[in-house]
Amino acid sequence: MWGGAVSAEGPLGISGLDYEIGGRRLLSAMDLSVGAGESVAVIGPSGSGKSTLLNLVLGLIKPLSGQILVSGQDMSALRGSKLTRWRQQHIGMVFQFGELLPELTPVENVALPALLAKGDRGEAFKRAEELLLSLGVPVGTTATADLSGGERQRTAVARALMSHPCLLLADEPTGALDEQARDQVADVLFNVPGQDGCGLLVVTHDASVAERADRVLELSQGKLVDATIRGAA
Ligand SMILES: Nc1ncnc2c1ncn2[C@@H]1O[C@H](COP(=O)(O)OP(=O)(O)OP(=O)(O)O)[C@@H](O)[C@H]1O
């Protein structure tokens, strides 16, 4: 089992995490930490609880017991608008299907969270454009629906980075892509910790994506164990 001390300073520290659903113990005394500038991939069979783990980190569901620190803050201790604000300010999330609004342009999609949070409009559009250009996404007037699958996922990465999160989560970020687009999105995603200094936690079925991470862990019977993937560091 991979343990590791829970750091109050790092992007993510999980200790002794237990979670049950429908009378079934899904996570059991799980420990995990993700350091600044580090990437961790979690693999595991379907139904083993990988997405549930991300939902717990986001504070969308509460653990039975144990502690989840995001940027030093115990997520279980926060409720309502405080929890929402902490999540918005410290965590970026990339979903399998991007979860973008198809009729908006990529810049509008990326700027939207900042606009909804009543941020400065000009600054939001400027940062959105810079982020998209840095990730190789065209910033014209094309609707997001008309972009390629890979461009859409890179737009989703840009949106997740908009708030300068200390922790970036990704749930099957390349699951809907062909091989070439998968590699481009994985390049972009795994560059982020080195460039921004945030921690990256990626859940994936794809060994060629997982092996890019600094550490690969397998979720097995409620615990994270070291996984050896050919070519993994
Ligand atoms: N709200 C819920 N009610 C009942 N069971 C649930 C609920 N949410 C998740 N589960 C169950 O918990 C288990 C873990 O689900 P989860 O989505 O975390 O798995 P996963 O490892 O991400 O799977 P996949 O790789 O297929 O996405 C599954 O058996 C799922 O059916």
From TrEMBL:
SUPFAM superfamilies per UniProt: P-loop containing nucleoside triphosphate hydrolases (SSF52540)
Source taxon at top rank: Bacteria
Similarity comment: family membership: Belongs to the ABC transporter superfamily.
Keyword Cytoplasm: no
Keywords: ATP-binding, Lipoprotein, Nucleotide-binding, Transport
Name of protein: Lipoprotein-releasing system ATP-binding protein LolD
UniProt-listed Pfam families: ABC_tran
PROSITE patterns assigned to the protein according to its UniProt record, in alphabetical order: ABC_TRANSPORTER_2 (PS50893)
InterPro entries cross-referenced by the UniProt entry: AAA+_ATPase (IPR003593), ABC_transporter-like_ATP-bd (IPR003439), ABC_transpr_LolD-like (IPR015854), MacB-like_ATP-bd (IPR017911), P-loop_NTPase (IPR027417)
SMART domains associated with the record: AAA (SM00382)
